[in-house]
Structure formats: C-alpha cells, structure tokens
Write a structure and sequence with these properties.
By secondary structure, the chain is α/β, with parallel strands linked by helices. It is built from 4 helices and 8 strands, in the order E-E-E-E-E-H-E-H-E-H-E-H. The longest helix is centred in the last third of the chain and has 18 residues. It is an enzyme of class 2 (transferase).
Length: about 200
C-alpha cells in the first residue's frame, strides 16, 4: 500500500449553485513507487485507510492515434432500445472508435443493446454507484433529480471520461438523445479537419 496526499486538480462550478457534494478531480503523486496501482481509496487527512471504506479502480488510458471517443455520461432508468441502436449506428457512421458510458441501472432490453455494442468493441461500460453519498433520495429520475446536486453527479461521469480518453485525439460528450450533424454527411474527424 502506498499513501500520498491528494490535491484537487479541478473542481466543477456551475452557475452560483452550492450543492451538498461538489464534483472534483483529485490528483496524487505515485512517482516513487515500484508497483502499478490498480485501486485507489480516498480518506481525510489523519484517518486510517486500513481497510479503505471506498476504493475505485485506477483507469489507465489507452492511446488511440487519431482516435475519436464519445462520452455518453450516465445510463439509467428506461432507455428505448430502438433509439439506442440508431444512436450507436450513427456513432459508427461518424467513425467513433469508442463510446464510454457509466451504467447505473437500465431496463433489460437496453442492457442487451449495450452488451451487443460492448461485444463489438465499440462500447466501454463503467460502473456508476446506485446508492449515492449524501442525500438518500438522490438519483437521475425526475422524481429525485435535485438540480443543484445532480449536475455535479453527471459531471463525475464527464471527469471519468476525460481520464479514460486521455490517449484519444478527439472526444465529445454526447447524450443518447443527441446527434451532432452538419449540412454535409461527414465524420467527426473530417469535420474537425475541415475546421482547421
């Protein structure tokens, strides 16, 4: 086990909202260790981490030269499987190499679609906790969506995507109900080359 002091690398600010828990990126130095960390746990200064209550896997970014990645943030509740297929096939036509989504809970038919695109190598599914810290009634459904907190909860997924896609040239955050289009049908990579 290696212990290092973490520093806040980025803190999400949205309007003047003050949520209970703020989305942040923590960074800690691992320069002087002789092993490759696979898990990380955060504890407050002075507290023991034996064992750490909350541990998460370390994401090591894959380098994809000229890679295009899409962050779909969080999948939850009911997603229409036909719309998902349309969305994934559109990403394939747009020459996307990888889609990352954090999965909380979804309907069985949507999960089948996710498994299919995962098997094809397009989709990387990362876990998102079902029970969120802080208020117990927090979530992403309209009945327990708390605007000041929930935008920060979504930002955690965006930060995770940023870490995962560090080795890609192009990254976009696109929800499952969004399509980036142009008057000419060209891929995302070509769109950016035209803009250069």
């Amino acid at each position: 086990m290696h212990r290092s002091e973490a520093v806040v690398e980025d803190s999400f600010h949205y309007r003047l909202i003050k949520p209970e828990l703020i989305a942040k990126i923590y960074k800690c130095s691992v320069k002087n260790i002789t092993f490759k960390p696979v898990h990380v746990g955060l504890v407050e200064n002075g507290n023991s981490c034996d064992p750490c209550v909350s541990v998460t896997s370390v994401i090591y970014p894959v380098v994809v030269e000229h890679g295009a990645g899409v962050c779909a943030k969080i999948a939850f509740n009911y997603l229409n499987p036909s719309y998902l297929i349309e969305w994934f096939e559109y990403q394939i036509m747009m020459e996307v190499d990888t889609v990352v989504v954090m999965l909380q809970y979804i309907n069985d038919k949507a999960l089948e679609v996710f498994k299919y695109y995962k098997q094809k190598g397009l989709l990387k599914i990362l876990p998102y906790p079902i029970k969120l810290p802080g208020k117990t009634d927090r979530g992403f459904e309209s009945t327990n969506w708390h605007f000041d907190q929930s935008v920060h909860d979504e930002q955690v997924a965006v930060y995770t995507c940023q870490a995962y896609f560090q080795g890609y040239e192009l990254v976009a955050v696109i929800d499952f109900d969004e399509f980036i289009v142009q008057d000419k049908f060209i891929s995302y990579k070509t769109m950016l080359k035209v803009c250069e």
